[in-house]
Amino acid sequence: MVKARIAVLVSGGGTNLQALIDAQGKGIIKSGEIVLVVSNKKDAYALTRAQNAGIKTAVIEKKGNPDFENDIIALLKSDGIDVIVLAGFMCILSEHFTKTFENRILNVHPSLIPSFCGEGFYGLHVHEAALNYGVKVTGATVHFVNEIPDGGKIILQKAVEVKEDDTPEILQKRVMEQAEWIILPQAVEIVSKNYIKE
Ligand code: GAR
Fold first, then answer.
1. 197 C-alpha to center of ligand 1: Å?
2. In what order do the strands lie in the sheet with 137-144?
């Protein structure tokens, strides 16, 4: 069996990337192997996490680069990537990109889609919006990526309780620990199975 080749796209701290690396170590991800981490920010701590795990890294910056997406596509193709995971990747991808890798791109979003999602809902803003609305339950979603921001088919979701004195930061941490870091590796395994080569 030849495992699916996985690339993870990141922009920041990379705790979800770390969850994927740890899940691979524990055999939760067994049908694929993380072979590449791409960041659009050169100072993203996620790059250090990848390097510590011995995974190849690349930085492709968006600012001032009209070929941003095409540069990423070329890299993913030259590395024979089968599955692409957006793990805290803070760029919206065009239809050209998403169609190039149809049914191969997953994203983790820190709410129960269709709540608190779409353009402008990313990172802490999502949890601020959930607290402002006053929901008592939130969570995380892993979904396929298509041309609609946060609009692709849902793969897994997990609910998380909102508590009385939550701040956006406290809620973000609970959603990560109780949902994102669990369902993202599970979803990556589910999708990687489709791209195993015999
Ligand atoms: C995570 O909470 C992720 O779900 C969110 O950003 C954070 C990145 O943290 N992504 C989005 O909001 C995408 N719309 P990480 O870099 O520590 O994984």
1. 30
2. 56-59, 32-39, 4-10, 83-86, 105-109, 137-144, 154-161
